[in-house]
């Protein structure tokens, strides 16, 4: 990343939505030395800035944070690299991304955490590594949480290989609690989902595909929430929650004042298992697209403030890893460049969820989940990460033009509302449309 | 191997040199991927054409054509009957099985498809353990694809030959009641049969234990109901379709075979609960002593070998249709 711009950047004429600061009004924002120098009513900021950004008619928001991304390094650069992945993230308005450790090899050591953060990776947005919770994510022996945290890991997880063993999950939450370190769980009882490739329901029966039941997710979430309720200071973060039953457990945990947070993905609030056509593997991901009633429960939780964050689970795969038998094709879809537009189209335009709530789900919400200090808000002194977007712009997503190395998305050709106009990281414009 | 798409910074669409298409294409005309999306009139057309086909009087409708039989799973009836059907129409056949070919070396389904296309295949007949495999093939390769059974999904040629067999015995679908007994969950035959019979208003009763006949099965087509009781399934039934318990596909599911036999095995006594002129069908392979007794398999009501015989003219019609002759 480039050094902070000392001359300053004045974003003027825009409408600032900063939920953490309870601001939803026309405001100018001055960035200087990589920080927010001033936020004031239009034309009230005195003194010059080297550069000015005209944000008339646009929303100015704290930089978006994605808690769940796969940038595929180390080891799987044919799918994505940190350079291409963060370019796609910037195009989607994300200024910070949290990378999952299920790479080759698994990021379970201080050395790999450091490697991910080296400037040679050519990241153009902030990369916050999440480390493996157990060695090689085998679920048997906890990694060195303390050392990983000191090296810069912001959470631990065995994403893709859930921690099934009760005693290991208990130990992880206990140790995480002592260190104020979130434990992220991909909730899936893999003993119940062998050979499964989509949600278990009428559609999977019709297509002759083995289905993952909602219970396979809900049972693990329920177990984890129970543990979190009973372990002092434990911090549980449920990744990509997708079922109404799991949501009930999380709601109970939150009511019991346990430190339980969770994210949902744009595809889970947009599509259901009925939407997949002709065994198109761009509709294959884990957790799978669920039933209409699951989607509706998630919409309620997005609107009522229960959901903490929208995260993409950006999971790029090469074309040949997807163009095969549905049951054999890789799980996962890309997500950076369509996330905001899907949120605006589905949640704001269709569901009337206020823009301020949507911004919260991309900013203050995720920043709280993983304690990303100085981010998620544009209060004076905050880090100068800013996302500027046009909430009314209608456009068509063309996967062929994605910045990602991969094209595995069900949203190719979709007409969407809401487009990122500029992404600013540490005071520098890293993407502008 | 396909060349991967390059990230594009300039904004111009990437030039894709790979044969992997991101857009879903329509399958080549004449493909038969499943029964679900086939119209009733089209089914009648195929069955009528099958009625005019006689394997003993070959007709060179497919003279000089190449029919590639791509079998990723074992098969006796389907494979040999497609082969006899193709040859009766004057076509050449080439059989490729998963063992003893490049499939064993890890060649992908699509690369095998491109290879047989390059060899000049006019029709690809595909049997595959993964549901939807023929769809993937048909979306990428401009040759008619015939689904000869894909995983748990569909087995359209079996449904058509069964329909042909039912019509030979019952003259019409009107007012018929069909009981399908056994392992519905793992059965592509059952799914295709439900789709086909439902299009003609047939009452369909699925019978078996919940592990093999989930309640959700009723959603597959209109007019389908589920029962756990064999008497309930058989009362007033014109056609009894039996299915094998597919022990190779159970995927960790535990089935108590003794209990299955006690509750659902088709015995002579049970078969008498159906209508007097009820016919007993089975797509094969039959396992004597499990889903049915020898007395039933060899009994006067059994049409199991007639099904096998009818497979040839039905598949002749399917292949002729693939080449636009129907």
Architecture overview:
The complex is a heterodimer of chains A (433) and B (326). Chain A folds into 2 domains: 9-60 and 383-432, Urease, subunit C, domain 1 (Roll); 63-369, TIM Barrel (Alpha-Beta Barrel). Chain A contains 13 helices and 20 strands. Chain A is of the alpha/beta class. The longest helix of chain A has 17 residues, at 214-230. In chain A, helix 4 crosses helix 6 (214-230) and helix 6 runs parallel beside helix 7 (244-255). The two termini of chain B are 37 Å apart. Residues 1-24 of chain B have low confidence and may be disordered. Chain B has 2 domains: 40-154 and 311-322, 3-Layer(aba) Sandwich (Rossmann fold); 157-305, Rossmann fold. The chains are: A alpha/beta (433), B alpha/beta (326). At the A-B interface, helix 5 of A face helix 4 of B.
Largest sheet of chain B: 5 strands, parallel
Q: Main sheet of chain A, how many strands, which sense, barrel?
A: 8 strands, parallel
Number of extended strands of chain B: 9
Global morphology of chain A: globular
Number of helices of chain A: 13
Please give the number of β-strands of chain A: 20
Q: Going across the major beta sheet of chain B, what is the strand order?
A: 7-6-5-8-9
- pLDDT < 50 stretches of chain A: none
Instruction: Work out the strand percent of chain B.
Output: 5-15%
Unreliable parts of chain B = 1-24
Name of the top-level CATH class of the largest domain in chain A? Alpha Beta
Briefly note the CATH topology name of the largest domain in chain B: Rossmann fold
């Amino acid at each position: 990343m480039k050094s902070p711009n000392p001359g300053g950047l004045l974003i003027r004429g825009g409408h600032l939505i900063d939920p953490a600061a309870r601001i939803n009004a026309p405001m100018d924002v001055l960035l200087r030395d990589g920080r927010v120098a001033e936020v004031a009513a239009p034309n009230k900021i005195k003194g010059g800035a080297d550069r000015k950004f005209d944000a008339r008619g646009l929303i100015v928001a704290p930089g978006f944070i994605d808690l769940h991304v796969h940038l595929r390094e180390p080891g799987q650069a044919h799918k994505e690299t940190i350079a291409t992945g963060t370019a796609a993230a910037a195009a989607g308005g994300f200024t910070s991304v949290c990378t999952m450790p299920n790479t080759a090899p698994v990021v379970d050591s201080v050395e790999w955490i450091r490697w991910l953060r080296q400037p040679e990776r050519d990241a153009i947005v902030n990369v916050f590594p999440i480390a493996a919770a157990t060695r090689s994510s085998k679920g048997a022996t906890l990694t060195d949480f303390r050392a990983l945290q000191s090296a810069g890991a912001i959470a631990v997880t065995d994403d893709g290989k859930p921690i099934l063993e009760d005693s290991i999950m208990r130990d992880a939450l206990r140790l995480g609690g002592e260190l104020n370190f979130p434990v992220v769980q991909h909730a899936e009882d893999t003993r119940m989902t062998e050979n499964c490739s989509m949600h278990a329901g009428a559609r999977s029966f019709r297509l002759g595909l083995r289905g993952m039941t909602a219970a396979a997710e809900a049972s693990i979430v329920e177990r984890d929430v129970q543990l979190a309720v009973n372990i002092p200071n434990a911090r549980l973060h449920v990744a990509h929650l997708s079922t109404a039953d799991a949501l009930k457990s999380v709601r109970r945990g939150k009511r019991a004042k346990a430190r339980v947070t969770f994210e949902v993905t744009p595809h889970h609030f947009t599509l259901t298992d009925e939407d997949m056509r002709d065994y198109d593997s761009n509709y294959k991901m884990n957790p799978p697209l669920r039933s209409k009633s699951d989607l509706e429960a998630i919409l309620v939780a997005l609107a009522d403030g229960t959901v903490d964050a929208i995260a993409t689970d950006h999971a790029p795969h090469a074309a040949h890893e997807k163009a095969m038998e549905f049951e054999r094709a890789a799980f996962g879809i890309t997500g950076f460049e369509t996330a905001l537009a899907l949120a605006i189209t589905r949640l704001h335009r269709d569901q009337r969820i206020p823009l301020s709530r949507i911004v919260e789900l991309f900013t203050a919400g995720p920043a709280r989940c993983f304690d990303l200090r100085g981010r998620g808000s544009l209060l004076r002194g905050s880090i100068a990460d800013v996302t500027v977007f046009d909430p009314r712009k209608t456009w068509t997503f063309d996967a062929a033009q994605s910045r990602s190395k991969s094209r595995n998305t069900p949203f190719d050709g979709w007409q969407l509302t809401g487009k990122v106009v500029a992404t600013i990281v540490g005071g520098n414009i890293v993407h502008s449309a | 191997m396909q060349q991967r798409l390059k990230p594009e910074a300039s904004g111009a669409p990437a030039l894709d040199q790979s044969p992997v298409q991101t857009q879903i294409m329509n399958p080549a005309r004449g493909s038969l991927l499943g029964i679900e999306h086939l119209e009733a009139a089209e089914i009648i057309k195929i069955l009528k054409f099958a009625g005019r086909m006689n394997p003993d009087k070959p007709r060179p409708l497919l003279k000089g054509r190449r029919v590639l039989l791509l079998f990723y799973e074992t098969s006796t009836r389907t494979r040999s009957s497609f082969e006899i059907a193709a040859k009766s129409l004057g076509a050449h056949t080439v059989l490729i099985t998963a063992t003893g070919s490049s499939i064993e070396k890890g060649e992908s389904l699509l690369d095998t498809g491109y290879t047989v296309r390059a060899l000049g295949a006019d029709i690809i007949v595909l049997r595959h353990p993964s549901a939807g495999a023929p769809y993937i093939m048909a979306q990428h390769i401009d040759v008619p694809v015939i689904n000869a059974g894909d995983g748990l999904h569909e087995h359209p040629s079996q449904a058509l030959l069964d329909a042909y067999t039912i019509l030979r015995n019952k003259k019409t679908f009107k007012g018929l009641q069909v009981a399908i007994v056994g392992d519905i969950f793992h059965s592509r035959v059952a799914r295709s049969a439900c789709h086909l019979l439902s299009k003609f208003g047939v009452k369909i009763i699925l019978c078996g234990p919940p592990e093999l006949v989930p309640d959700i099965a009723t959603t597959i087509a209109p007019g389908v109901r589920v029962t756990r009781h064999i008497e309930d399934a058989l009362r007033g039934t014109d056609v009894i379709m039996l299915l094998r318990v597919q022990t190779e596909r159970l995927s960790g599911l535990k089935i108590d075979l003794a209990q299955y036999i006690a509750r659902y095995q088709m015995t002579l006594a049970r078969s008498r609960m159906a209508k007097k002129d009820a016919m007993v069908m089975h797509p094969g392979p039959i396992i004597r002593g499990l889903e049915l007794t020898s007395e039933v398999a060899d009994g006067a009501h059994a049409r199991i070998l007639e099904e096998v015989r009818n497979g040839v003219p039905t598949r002749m019609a399917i292949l002729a249709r693939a080449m636009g002759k129907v």
